[in-house]
Specification:
Shape: elongated
Helix content: 25-40%
Protein name: Multidrug ABC transporter ATP-binding protein
Keywords: ATP-binding, Nucleotide-binding, Transport
CATH architecture of the largest domain: 3-Layer(aba) Sandwich
Number of helices: 12
CATH superfamily of the largest domain: P-loop containing nucleotide triphosphate hydrolases
InterPro entries: AAA+_ATPase, ABC_transporter-like_ATP-bd, ABC_transporter-like_CS, P-loop_NTPase
CATH topology of the largest domain: Rossmann fold
Low-confidence stretches: 7-11
Family: Belongs to the ABC transporter superfamily.
GO molecular function: ATP binding; ATP hydrolysis activity
Order of helices and strands: HEEEHEEHEHHHEHEHEEHEHEEHEH
Length: 317
């Protein structure tokens, strides 16, 4: 067996970076999270979606050991939390519910204070680590301004810098684009992509569905404290959407040919959609070519994440 095969096998059997099993959290008479089972695959970028009040932040806080589940268990990098959280947390960067810093210190000074508490960062490395983190999030020019004068987006960037002071195995970002302008949102997308390319696992809670669709490999959808769907993003978008999309300039001929054999087809955009239940895709393409139809592209129809999210949350009780 080659080394590359060993690596692929290890990746397939790698334990999840984070997991909750049967977790439930009750605040007084309010059930914030109700019996959720969820795994965050190692090496994935998982987008956690849900309306306000769906339990996203509460679930993240339980994963990080910031609040104890009423029932059920949580694991972070293979360690039970909150009981053994101290063994996992040095390898975890997190931005949850907005950053909190000293208002009268500069961004750089605040970040140095955070860096001084990092168990994986030697004192001699603090200056360089702080400068690199500030540059990475686009705050180098504002680093010596007082935190109280920062805009909401700048405060969010500083919180992100704190999460990235040292290389992490897992990065958890709760609404990281809150308050950011389009340039800041692009920076977050770039950083998430860099983390993913470097082998880190990223958990992102967001209400920006387009950003999740652009950056995430997996999604989990919450509604009223329950998990209504989870899995690979591509698989979820494919499931239940139905149909083969054929791009062609010969729409009328294509429709006539397919309807002639009893297939259900209709015009859409710059081509046609052939509904499921008829001939398989290779036969559809072969039929169209024989009929003289110029087939520019043929692909399975995919829903947009916005459509999937709306359907899942509307269907949930």
């Amino acid at each position: 067996m080659t080394a590359s095969t060993d690596e692929r096998t290890a990746a397939r059997v790698a334990p999840p970076a984070a997991a909750v099993r049967g977790v439930r959290k009750v605040f007084g008479r309010t059930v914030a999270v109700d019996g959720i089972d969820l795994e965050v695959p190692t090496g994935s970028v998982l987008g956690m979606l849900g309306p306000n009040g769906s339990g996203k932040t509460t679930l993240i806080r339980m994963l990080l050991g910031l609040t104890r589940p009423t029932s059920g268990t949580a694991e972070l990098l293979g360690h039970a939390v909150p009981d053994a959280a101290e063994q996992a947390l040095p390898h975890v960067g997190a931005l949850v519910e907005g950053p909190g810093f000293h208002p009268f210190l500069s961004g750089r000074e605040n970040l140095r204070r955070v860096a001084a508490t990092e168990p994986l960062l030697a004192t001699s490395q603090i200056r360089e680590a702080v400068g690199t983190a500030l540059e990475r999030v686009g705050l180098a020019d504002a680093a010596d301004r007082r935190f109280r004068g920062y805009s909401l987006g700048m405060k969010q960037r500083l919180g992100l810098a704190a999460a990235l002071l040292v290389p992490r195995r897992l990065v958890v970002l709760d609404e990281p684009t809150n308050g950011l302008d389009p340039a800041g949102t692009r920076d977050v997308r770039r950083i998430v992509a860099e983390l993913h390319a470097g082998g880190a696992t990223v958990l992102v809670s967001s209400h920006l569905l387009a950003e999740v669709e652009a950056t995430c490999t997996h999604v989990a959808v919450l509604q009223s404290g329950t998990l209504v769907a989870s899995g690979e993003l591509s698989a979820l978008l494919e499931a239940g959407t139905g149909g083969l999309v054929v791009t062609t300039p010969d729409v009328d001929t294509a429709l006539e040919s397919l309807r002639g054999i009893g297939a259900t087809a209709f015009r859409e955009g710059d081509g046609i959609v052939v509904a499921d239940g008829g001939p398989p895709a290779p036969e559809v393409v072969a039929l169209l070519v024989r009929a003289g139809v110029a087939v520019h592209e043929a692909r399975r129809r995919r829903a947009r994440l916005e459509e999937l999210f709306a359907r899942l949350t509307e269907e949930s009780p």
